[in-house]
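Lab notebook, bench 4. The sequencing result for the construct came back, and we need a structural model before the next group meeting so we can plan mutations. Quick request posted to the team channel:

Model the 3D structure of this chain.
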Amino acid sequence: MKEKISRDNLIHLIIIVVGSLMISAGFNLFFIPHSILSSGLSGIAILLGLITPFDTGLLNFVLNLPLLIIGMFKLGKRFIIFTIISVVVTSMALYIIPVIKVASDPLLSSIFGGVIGGVGVGIILRASGSSGGFDIVAVLLTLKRDIPLGAILSGLNAVVVIFSGFIFGWDSALNTLIGIYASGKVIDTIHTRHIKLTLMIITQKGDEIQKRLLENFYRGITIMEGYGAYTGEKKKILMTVITRYQLTDIKQLINQYDPKAFVNITETKEVMGLFERNR
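Done. Here's the predicted structure in token form:
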């Protein structure tokens, strides 16, 4: 078990480093050359880096410090360690990667920069970390309500767009808005923790599957007795609600213990009552 946890942490760490490098590449190769701002505190760091002599990477790290401290108390040690690693890697990469204008068209740069940065943020969030800044605020909010994280980030970034318009002109502000929108849509495509699924498992090996589910997943299960209308065989019906992240592992578990189990999977619009949202 310890070896599995260690291996998982290593994989998550690699994903976080790759995602952080993607974010930095999106900034230095697409956003900054056209005075396009990214979302969140990193956008403010780009803004200050363009109008002051300070390096964007250094500003990104300094601006994130207060939220990292808050996150330490609210979001757990593992999450915040991964977030600190992401912020450090992103800040260093912003300093190392040269600022090059890959595309001459600001519109194309805003779209591709947003998509690349959004993929980076999305895979970091799936690896149980964050890229810092407003991501921490958004994650805190999604723990309370099932709101798409990308939508929250887009709402928090209105101030970045306004600043961009007043300082660099409204063409730049509109390109910033496009970049933020593209990034938010990609994040919601990758980060699907807010999506809940209801599983109804009909199986002849209900006791075994019930035991394994409770051992491996922090989810409640409702059990009902049933029988096949055609065969008359007694079966157990297990019903549970999970996050989309857990679906692949649960399908493998069910297939391992009862390949003939009938499983109905439906997307759940809303969950009320006792449901652990942190897992």
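The mean pLDDT is 81.
Will bring this to the meeting.
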